Amino acid sequence: MGACRREAGFCQVLLFSMCRSDQEKGALLVCCLWLFFSGFCSGIQMLSVQPDTKPKGCAGCNRKIKDRYLLKALDKYWHEDCLKCACCDCRLGEVGSTLYTKANLILCRRDYLRLFGVTGNCAACSKLIPAFEMVMRAKDNVYHLDCFACQLCNQRFCVGDKFFLKNNMILCQTDYEEGLMKEGYAPQVR
Description:
Blueprint (H helix, E strand, L loop, with lengths): L2 H16 L3 H16 L2 E4 L1 E4 L20 E5 L2 E3 L13 H4 L2 E5 L2 E3 L1 H8 L3 E2 L6 E2 L5 E4 L2 E4 L18 E4 L2 E4 H10 L8
Antiparallel strand pairs: 1-5, 2-3, 3-4, 5-6, 7-8, 9-10, 11-12
């Protein structure tokens, strides 16, 4: 993994080795677990610097911001180059309007989900879905985009197509109605 993960782990190990008693170690472990499982999402604002205002200090490099634009995030001001993801070094003002913080790390969405996101399995193929991947949902089921198709005829759905969830299977309108006819039910058309 990236340097950010090693840095957070190093701090925890260093603090853990400084604890004198098992009680202190237990309290530190609870604190580290809370930091690990609690994340924070914050917005990023790009602001133009007004020429008649006093220059603001950058939270990243501690120098005055004399550029034409600055970023405001986490109630602090930043140079555009200083507000970066701790893992991939991407400029957060360029990749979106959101940043994530966890365990004293500032992260882009992709790295936050890669490091701390919950993964699951696709309801159609049962393969792992990484936390940062786009998915389709139907009730409690989650699918890869490529797996979101009628499970009888394999017809892929387009935006606006109707689909039906019957016995935990995704069906196109044709297969759903044929199944109802076989069961002796007439579909209700509205």
